[in-house]
Structure formats: structure tokens, C-alpha cells
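Human: My hope is that you can spare some time for a protein that puzzles me. I am handing you a single protein, as its sequence and its fold in C-alpha cell form. Could you go through the record with me and say what the backbone is doing? Take your time, and here it is.
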Amino acid sequence: MKKILLETSFSKIYMIIMVIITLLILGGYFSYAMFTVTKEKENAISIVTGNLTYKLLVDDKETNTLTVPSNSRKDFIVTLSNPNNRVGRFNFYYEGSLPEGVDIGYIEKEGVNTPPSSTGINLEKVDTTGSSNTYIVRVSNTTESEISIELGVSVGLDYNDLDLPSDGHLLRKITSTGTVKEVIEDDIMNRLNYDDSEQTFVTGSNPNNYIWYSGKLWRAVSIDTSDNFVKLVTQWNISTISYDNNSTNFEDSYMESWLNDTTVDGFLGNLRSPEKFIKLDSKWNASMVSDGKLPSEEEGGTIVEDAVGLLNLYEYTMSGSSESYLNNGLYWWLLTPYNNAINNFFVLNTGQVNSLSVTNNYGVRPSINLKSEIKVESGEGTVDNPYRLEGDNDSNLSGTLLNTRYSGEYINFGTGENNLYRIVSHETKGLTKIVSAKTLKENGTIKTVTFGDSVFYSSTNTIGSFLNGEYLTDGEYLTSELVNMIEDNTTWYLGTVGSGVSYRLAKYKDVSMSEYATNTNAKVGLLRFGELMAGQFDRSENNVNYWTLTPYSTSHVRYVGSNGAASFNYPDRANNVYPALNLKSNVIITGGDGTKNNPFTLDLAP
């Protein structure tokens, strides 16, 4: 254990002490025990007794040691108190160099006092109470062993000066604001991979690269070294569709269409101000694999220009593949063709890569490129406190109409364990379609319901009767006030989507979208196949199979599997339930910011 030294210049203290002693002798007030000092090393002393003392607490314990397990990060609450009746100048420091892969610093949070600076912090006794400063000290450790770091406290009697020991280092401020590129590069937990001269990749199993934008949780994947655009991918599968019918080409595929559809039915059309936040003419390398690496544009690779794309096999590999944060435990499509037939690469729920026909229905994780000037306004990059972007970090939304908000945002709607929903879209003008964020539970048990005696949903078939009856009335799922917010009559589209056909057939009679498919009216329904939010989000809470209202054939109905792939089953079988409904046009927000940890609260405007 290293001693905690209260550091300053010995010569300065000596001079100050001599002046004080002289004055006190002249005044008749001299006390020999006022200061006792011991020489520890050159230009450093330890104050053993006297009027200038301090108290150091780490997580409310009197200690100076910060211990962090291997490959993890810990935040410590560190408090420094001055019980003296005079001003002292204080600062934290640590001695020696940090091991490679270890980072230490402080972060500012609401309610935290002035952070350390190179000139020190003054702490003065106020009335009968000693003053103190509280800091959040963060230690990141990417080494293979546990590490311990000892804090020192430097104390200066000279109000205008504060010296550190020669091998001491002040805690630095950990950057949590700046451009997205700067913030991602600043955090050591992101373990950047510089092996590619064109892209810098984030690696590791749980880096601090979570970003909340437009109602969805994203991960920062890479930084383009030429223009500083940051590539993002959604943390979870936003929907599940076939890649295409008979071609592995991304261009003109069902996948490209779904991702870049600017209508209310598509992904791009439901993003917040895409022209402000994302590079609309991004280039996506959809080349076939060659020698383990995708060919570049100059080498004759297949480059598609779009606002939204998918990660390709090379990007997945360079980020760490199955050992990385990109492995979300679900099936999801990659951008890369496997061969000239109709096979495409996808990621399995184990994180391994496989290839199968493009007619299969796997999860979709959209990818975008954030513009280089987009800044982080707050957050820590963790799942519970993701980075929030300037211009997308709204506050004081009380009184705002819900129908002005964005797909994916969370809502406090429902009761008990069934009280979390998400915005799907504004498919019907003025209304807000929402869906349960978790499968329904009844008395703590996951609810399963058979679809019915046919493949067509209605308010009177088995699952429709439950949703428009018991779900609305028995108090297990909704209160009467919440039921009053639901639009009484919604159109639910019942188009059939078979194998290898476009997701658009779930709503339209043909891909030209000139005429709607068969439909029914009901107060409560389900999401259709290929609709926004009809994927597996938040794996920890949604390890279930749940019904959509889309027929697969005359004998089977589509459902979304627990592994993120869509399949089909007989309607007399039981699956889980995610209710979908439209909220009225006069529903307003009364609180919250739309994130999972702080969902919107609602009321009806007069």
C-alpha cells in the first residue's frame, strides 16, 4: 500500500510555518503542536497533526483503493471533506503509470460538485459544517486480471499553488460530449481496431457504444477515416422479412425497398429528420466475398448508394464476429451474397455466420451513417444510459401530442407487469399505432392464445375475441382511463405473405401498392408480417414466439420466432401475444422522454 500524501512544496510550507510561528509568538498565542511535519521524500511532506486535515471516502468507506475486475468498468463515488476552519486547496491524483488497457478519470453528473482541475479545488469550512466535494470516478479495465489503483490527495497551503509529486497524475475528465466520433474514440472500453486504413472498428463484448436515436437503441460500429462518419446498427431486430425472391443483389431487393421506403410503411420514412442526422448517399459494399475480404469500389466491387443498408460480412468479422457486441442472440441478415445462386449470409443466434436462400425470413438490423458533425449531448454509452444526440435529446415534452413522436419510443401504457408499449408508426393520419414492448403476462405467467379456427384475424376469432374482450375489460392489462384513449375502430390488413414474396403483400394486393389487401375492423389487433417493430427487441424479455395477423397460406399463420426468424404455424396452435392498437389523436404526453428507463406518460387532452 502506498501512503496517501498531502503534497506541497516543503520549502513553501516551511516558510509559511515560520511566518505563522513568528506571528503567534509575537501575539502570545504560540502552540508547539500546531503542526508536526515529517520529511517523506524530496520536496514532499506528510502532515501528521494540525489544523489542515481531510477525510477521503470511496463509496462511503474510508479507503483510497479502487479495485476493478478484469475486462470491466466500475464507477466509484469519491468524497473529499475538509473539516478545518480555514481554506485548503485539494486535488486527487494517482501515482505511477497505469497498466496498458486501464483508464481512470472523473465524469460530471447532475448534483456533482466542481470537478478537479490543474489548479486545485478550494474547500472551506462553512459555519459549523465542513465543506466537501463529491466526484464520480470511473475506472475502465480491459486487462485480463483485476487491478487496484490507489488515490492520493494533494493539499496546498498556498492558495495560488498546488504541487503534485513527480510521479503523480491528476484524474482527467472523461469526455462525454463532442462529436460522436470523438466520444467513441475517447472511451478505452471500445477497444478500437485500426487494422483497416479506411474504417476504424469498435470491438469487444460490451463496449460503451450504445446510442439512442429516433426511438431506437443503436451500436456504433465503425468510423470512416476519410470523412469521420460513424456507422451505426440497431441493437435489436426491428422487423423480419425475406431478403428477396430469386436474387442475392441488394439493389432492387425486398430488403433495400424495406430499409429505404420513405412512406409510413418503411424504415427510412419513420426516422427522425434523416436529412439532418444521416448521410443519405452512403455507399454500401454489397460485394460477394473474395479471399475473405470484400473487394473495394476500386477493385470492381458491388457498391450500392442508399441512405440505409445492412452490415456486411467483412464489417461483422472486423468487429469481432461472434465474440463481439454485435452478437445479439438472434438471426439477422447481412448484406453479403454467398454465391451466384440465391444464398446470402446471415448471423445465427449463436453469433456464427451461415448462408441460406434469400427467401428465408430473418431479422433486419438497419444500418446508417451518422454525419460527422452530429454531437453527443449527454449519456455514458451504456445500455442504461446511452449517448443522446444533439437535436434528438428532447426535454419538457409535457403537453406535446403523441402523434408527433417517433417509431420505437417507449410509452407507459397498461398495468402492472404489462405496462410498457412502443410506438410503431402513424399509419392512420392523426393516430399513433403502438404495440406491447413485452409479451402479455397473466399473474406472472406468460399468456399464450390460439389464433382461431381460420387463418384470418377478426374481432370474433379466438385471439381477436380475447384482445377485444378480456384484454380491454378485466383490469389485468388496462385501466378504464387507458381504454378510453384507444381509437374504437382500426383497419387491420390481412394480406397473405407466402415464401419468398414481398412483405408489401401483407398490406397491399400487389407490390405496386395500388390497392389494399383484404382487411377487417377492430379496436385491438396485432402487427402484420414485415411491419415496423414486428421483430425481436430486447432479447432478455422477449424469448418467445408471438403471432402476427398475416396468413402464410390458407392453412398457416405467420409468427415471429424467439430466435428472430419468422415462421408459420396452424391457427389452432398457441403462441404468445403482443397487442397492437391505435391511440386517439388528442392523446398528449405528460412526462418522460420516450426511452425505456423513462417512458412517456399519457393523458387525453380536453
